[in-house]
Design a protein that fits this description.
Layout lengths: L17 H12 L4 E9 L5 E12 L5 E10 H10 L4 H8 L4 E5 L4 E4 L1 H7 L3 H4 L13 H12 L4 E9 L5 E12 L5 E10 L1
Antiparallel strand pairs: 1-2, 2-3, 4-5, 4-8, 6-7, 7-8
């Protein structure tokens, strides 16, 4: 992670693939979501890795584009996933994200959390699963969460909105929260990813 932060995205793109990736980037900036584009990345040691790439923009609460998220899956895994249905968008995001992350269903109940979330919140997955997401949101922040959740459900991804979360022991942590709607293969919303950064 520290090797790549601050460097150009082309650092992991072989020179003969950079033009096509640049064209994809421009399409993404124009509002087009890129799905399952097959290309090649290369590793730090120079190994070529065939991948399936998905790209989409992330917006702030004023609907201003902030970032482009790229999810790259090794092509052999992507093909296996499409045939077995074993992995979901949630799995890929969990693997790619080192920040605390909680997945809530469309009714607002926790369905999953990653290791970073367990560490900052002090809850075990089994203890929090099925409980309302409001369990970890202080009372004075709950209306704001409802507002940004509504925006996210209306296809406005939310990035880095200041909020607070509290742990099992009652410790309150100031965070920035990003919300992304997770969808199934037919584009139907299935859950909301809450990504927290300690500020």
């Amino acid at each position: 992670r520290t090797d790549l932060i601050g460097k150009k995205g082309t650092t992991i793109i072989p020179s003969n693939q950079q033009k096509s990736i640049g064209e994809l980037l421009q399409k993404c900036k124009s509002g087009e979501n890129i799905k399952n584009f097959e290309t090649v990345h290369w590793s730090k040691v120079g190994t070529f890795i065939p991948v399936s790439v998905n790209m989409f923009q992330v917006f702030d609460s004023d609907e201003i584009p902030q970032h482009i998220v790229t999810v790259s899956v090794p092509l052999d895994e992507a093909l296996a996933d499409s045939s077995s249905g074993a992995k979901t968008d949630t799995d890929m995001l969990f693997q790619a994200n080192v920040d605390p992350m909680i997945i809530e269903d469309l009714s607002g109940k926790v369905v999953d959390m990653n290791e970073a979330a367990k560490k900052i919140l002090g809850w075990k997955r089994s203890e929090l699963k099925g409980k309302p997401i409001k369990t970890i949101i202080p009372q004075d922040q709950q209306k704001q969460h409802e507002k940004i959740l509504l925006l996210a459900q209306n296809n406005v991804p939310i990035v880095k909105v200041e909020s607070k979360i509290w742990s099992k022991t009652g410790t309150v942590t100031l965070v920035s929260v990003s919300l992304i709607v997770l969808k199934d293969s037919e584009g139907r919303p299935t859950a909301i990813a809450n990504i927290f950064q300690d500020i």
